[in-house]
Amino acid sequence: MRNMKIVLQYDGGRYDGWQKQGNTEQTIQGRLEKILERMTGSLIEVHGAGRTDRGVHALGQVANFKVPDSFMAEEVKEYLNRYLPEDIKVTEGQEASERFHSRLSAVSKTYRYMIETGKKDVFERKYIYGLGHSLDIEAMRKAAAYLIGERDFRSFCAGKRIKKSTVRRLYEVSIEEQGSKVILTFRGNGFLYHMVRIMAGTLIETGLGKRKPEDMPDVLQAENREAAGFTAPPEGLFLVEVEYDT
Amino acid sequence: MRNMKIVLQYDGGRYDGWQKQGNTEQTIQGRLEKILERMTGSLIEVHGAGRTDRGVHALGQVANFKVPDSFMAEEVKEYLNRYLPEDIKVTEGQEASERFHSRLSAVSKTYRYMIETGKKDVFERKYIYGLGHSLDIEAMRKAAAYLIGERDFRSFCAGKRIKKSTVRRLYEVSIEEQGSKVILTFRGNGFLYHMVRIMAGTLIETGLGKRKPEDMPDVLQAENREAAGFTAPPEGLFLVEVEYDT
């Protein structure tokens, strides 16, 4: 079997997220598997690096799956793009080593959260969170600094009964202004359920003056979802890139 | 009565263009008039500067209409934005002089046509024409130069029985590259039915080597739609701005 690595772009607006759930077809994984089944005549499981939620977008999601050797990498990529809807696209497709796994081999992932502090542009309405208020960027940067490093992010996890470790390492949280837009970038070795959106929401509340930057250590220490801020809406979130050790 | 001037942004993707037609509500003009009727209790006619076609977008469409003096300009703008769907937005709204007319007072209009010569991005798929071929920009610029000035643009008009003058003045046709995108900008004192899209199509055919730049004068002289190129699709077209004296 040939192990295929693909890079994907998608507008998550009309999908129930990455992961297949029951018999819904409205997931990215479901769409890919259906096309691969039609191509090869057999069931093929597609593994994604990041399980993006309903409505979340991707600029560089990575996935892998096995196809019979008779299918060449380029052919698989073209077949997928021919049958995928126009809001999902394979931008790269190549054969990977047998041991490559999109999620398990990843060393880090980068997410971006887009905020409009001014008026939301009609053309970007589906790809940015329309906050409509100005933000104190310096306060947000101070708060963000407390998140960097290896931390227990339980307070930033929406899962109810969490059995596995909630310790993750954040390498970078940057906050940039671009005109009236504020762009949050998070790079880490892994992210819990809703973690990026809860971090974005907590930083937004800090930028609005509803929280103090110095309170962030308490939020972390609480190890309780209630201590953190709101879950920022999905339309502002993009999985930008998944990084691997060559 | 108070004469209102508004500036509008819209994603034309799901509309049958600017102009009201019969009893369809799926036009920008129809949407605005319905909301104004609800606000004032009387029928109000909205005049647009450019009658954008089905599927064409606007960054700066201008319109005017009369409301009873009891309605303040800011109030009208806010009321419209409250009830307009999220793909139409009033970005400016102010009282204009009694004699102001969005179309008749305009001195020029600027349209932009967006072309993707490489791979169409999932997020821009509705706002750019996915040509997918490289273009000879210099040839396009040479061809475009013949269009500038006062010309009879009958060859670039899709109307079948044209009774009125087809002479218009083009002030500017610029062709810019931005990565794999090519951006055509047209500024003129008026545009005929489908004129921008036919000019874009003819310039694209020139950029693809299907036409020679030197043939453009013949295309103009033919005064026949058949002599010009194809009508480029609406999703790449934006009404950018309408210019007025002061």
Report on the architecture of this protein:
In chain A, 22% of the residues lie in helices and 30% in strands. In chain A, strands 1, 2, 3, 4, 5, 6, 7, 8, 9 and 10 form a 10-stranded mixed sheet that branches. The mean pLDDT of chain A is 95. Chain A has 246 residues and is α+β, with helices and mostly antiparallel strands. In chain A, strand 2 (47-48) and strand 3 (57-67) form a beta hairpin. Chain A starts with a strand and ends with a strand. Chain A is built from 5 helices and 10 strands. The first copy, chain A, has helices at 28-40, 73-83, 137-145, 195-207, 216-222; strands at residues 2-10, 47-48, 57-67, 88-95, 106-116, 129-130, 149-152, 167-178, 181-188, 237-244. Chain A is globular, with a radius of gyration of 19 Å. The interface between A and B is medium-sized, with 15 and 15 residues.
